[in-house]
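[step 3/7] fold_predict: job queued, chain A
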Amino acid sequence: MPVPTLLPATQDDAPEVLVLQRCCWVTEAVANGTLDIPPLHEDLGDVRGWIGTAWVLRDGSRLIGGVRAALEGDAWHIGRLMVAPDRRGEGLGRLLLAHIESVAPQQVTRFALFTGAGSTANQALYERAGYRRTGTDGVVVHLEKPRPEEPDLH
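[step 4/7] structure written:
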């Protein structure tokens, strides 16, 4: 099986990203018992608005994953981490998470994200990647991890 390709997302990717997003968040809606999940209610204009801060994962011409992030103060807020349902379990989520962390601006001191309280598979992925819970309101779980110190090579 060829290695998927990670690319910066472009406006041309937005329609496929929207379809994949809806596909991925249906399972989140089921896991959390609610359709009140923002990714299910975004339209193409919303996705086009943030697509410039995202990366996509392609297997040939097929979009199989994506992730975005935004800088807020010293935190790199990671979101919309998605992997096509038929490609889950291949390590693609870990790949996307590691990549989006690696492209964080230099001033970032911590990574932050959130997921549904019922999204236990997501929580397990994030905790294996070093994230720790910082709070929950019973609906959403917030997680963070410090950015690792870069070794001083001098």
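[step 5/7] annotate
The first strand starts at residue 5 and ends at 8.
Residues 7 and 56 are 5 Å apart (CA to CA).
exit 0
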